[in-house]
Amino acid sequence: MTRIAVLGSTHMDLVAHAARAPGSGETVTGREFRTIPGGKGANQAVAAARAGGEVTMIGAVGDDLYGALLRDGLDHAGVDTDLLHTAEGPSGTAHIVVDDTGANSIVVIPGANGVVTALGPGEIAAVAAADLLLMQLELPLSAVVEGARAARAQGVRTILTPSPARPLPDELLDHIDLLVPNEHEAAELSGQAEPHAAAQILLRQVPEVIVTLGAKGCLYAARGGEPVLFEAPAVKAVDTTGAGDTFVGTLAVALGEGRPVAESVAWASAAAALCVQKPGASTSMPYRSEIEAV
Ligand code: ADP
To answer: Which of 102, 213, 246, 290 has the greatest count of CB atoms below 10 A from its CB?
Structure first.
């Protein structure tokens, strides 16, 4: 079984559906509200566990009701939460308004995620025991850098989802084996809007890049090789939330099982295509048997 450590965020997504988002100083009446466990770290952890990985989540929830629900959700998915700390204060929350065009406005409040500024000996040991370490950018950068460095020192493969996009220091990128930005993040990090050009720039700093391109699939590029475009399965998407996290979580499991890149990407694309056909993020991630059936 692939052992995966996820160093990342947990958020409770508080999702309001309304005809349109309110302007400044305005109140609108919406029609539906849902609380959905999320956070890019937790989403990748759930995707990897459902795809058949043995997953440990490193991060923090608050000591509020949301914290208990977020932990329960991960436990229920089979993710090991022994290293998911309960910090004093509120859990991370994402306050999301979805309008009738499907567009989002989001306020993210890091809450407990913000206290994860460094790793303790237990976390370092969990990273060292893993086959792969998955990271995103919703925790303080100091913890992400420390995790990447610890993984590299132990020969553990590192995968970074650079989201939300921000300038990244060399001390982080120097320890990343595979960078998986979406099209927008790739453009922001490289200064190049075209994905092939963006990937070539990013390859100066990391040995492998996968730029995900939504319904168009993804572009895989490695130093010294020809880039390869993989098409996504043609499906009717109802909600693309969590597609990227499903892709990465599943990809990590496949790579950890020693599958070649093309097969791993095909697996990840199949899982992400299943995810977009159902509403929600963690709620719509497929199980291994469903991925294998495609
Ligand atoms: P993110 O969710 O991080 O913005 P993308 O939108 O690029 O990332 O989606 C990640 C992956 O999910 C894509 O590479 C693709 O495999 C899959 N995917 C996303 N949208 C669709 C879609 N409409 N149809 C099929 N697959 C999709």
So the answer is: 246
Residue 150 in tokens: 């610890």
Radius of gyration (C-alpha) of the chain in whole angstroms: 18
Q: Provide the pLDDT for residue 28.
A: 97
Q: Residues 220, 261: contact at Cβ < 8 Å?
A: yes
Q: Is the CB of 267 under 6 A from ligand 1?
A: no
What's the CATH number of domain 3-10+37-85+113-293, 3.40.50.150, 3.40.1190.20, 3.40.220.10, 3.30.559.10? 3.40.1190.20
pLDDT tens per residue, range 229-261: 999 999 998 888 889 999 999 999 999 999 999
Q: Going by CA atoms, what residue is nearest to atom 6 of ligand 1?
A: 214
Segment 31-76, tens digit of pLDDT: 999 999 999 999 999 999 999 999 999 999 999 999 999 999 999 9
CA atoms of 75 and 131, how far apart (whole Å): 21
Which amino acid is it at 90?
P
pLDDT of residue 255: 98
Q: Relative to the CA of 241, which ligand 1 atom is closest?
A: 2
In this structure, are residues 178 and 208 in contact, taking their beta carbons and an 8 Å threshold?
yes
Is residue 294 within 8 Å of residue 270, measured between CB atoms? yes
